[in-house]
Amino acid sequence: MVFGSGLPQSFNPHKYDMIVVGAGFAGSVCARRIAEGLGIHVAVLERRGHVAGNAYDCVNEAGIRVHVFGPHVYHTKSQRVDSFLSRFTEWTDYRHRVLADVHGVLMPVPFNRQSLQLAFGPARAERLFDKLVATFGKDVTVPILELRDTNDPDLAEVADYVFENIFYHYSVKQWGKTPDELDPVVLDRVPILIGECDLYYPEARFQGLPCDGYTAMFERMLHHDLIDVFCDVDARDLISFEETRTLFANEPYGGEIIYTGPLDELFGFEFGVLPYRSLELGVETLDQDRFQPVGTINYTVSEAFTRITEFKILTEQDVPGKTTIMREYSRPWSPSSGQIPYYAVIDRESRALYDRYLERVRELTNFHPVGRLAEYRYYDMDAVTESALELSDEIIALHA
What we know:
32% of the residues lie in helices and 24% in strands. The two termini are 23 Å apart. Belongs to the UDP-galactopyranose/dTDP-fucopyranose mutase family.
């Protein structure tokens, strides 16, 4: 394995049977899986100066492991995803809990039985809970849109409360749009839980954080005799297209290319710019043992920021007298902003625009877009991993 900064003058793309653009989840999973599955030499080109993408973490001056680009909590229901990633790390037993600050009252998210009691008072909450159980069953999750569509006035009142106090203002802050303007998949991600469980990911069989961090997990994943990693390399300067051929450094490239960046950027925004939201992250280390009762508190009806995460709770570190928190401010994104495109703003227009870019690469047999940016998806880490494993299966089957 080679791990370098920049491409050496001696770099020969034809030495590699595959070039992977991006060393985040999608690119790293594909690189490892295909290097092992086909026994071919793979070059990984990463624009940043480190691997792990937005999951990159490091230990700060206070000795607390911080997720530099925002908090990442691993969770999945997929045995395959967990088995693959667990080859490169052991996991903590951390279980993520989130509270919403609703006019100063902290209530669990997803909205559960305890949340009902805090919102409606114990007696009325129990009557509402019984009706929810009778309508949907117990210990199940119900998307907010489904609850809003019921004809029962009591359940409609619950839906209206949750929609107004948990989702509406938070969505406006997060997306710069009202919930009705967003793809329904956004609201489906945060359901109501008809039960006692106060976990943020109640249905995820596997949960935790890498014991020694995400960066170490990625470094192990990419540590292979057939994988060379080059950081500080911008693939936009190297990849181009000529009819149905892919060019690397202006020469035809006959190997496979896995691309994990934005497609519109690769084509110079020829058809227009795909919309994203970005984040401004305010990090502060405080001289106290603990700042808040759980790892993350969402500010759903107040404050300019969307949430505060306390990393020492996530990492379960024992660092007396110090704690590090991160406030997240959602911001609009543009190519000239210098910010990171975090969340695809998916609606009918943006889907149609993405499809135009996808059509440009559809006939290229050796070019494979995969991942959150290249597929223009609102992906969690496990979904990105699963998509990369599925693409790897296809490429391995094609060349085996």
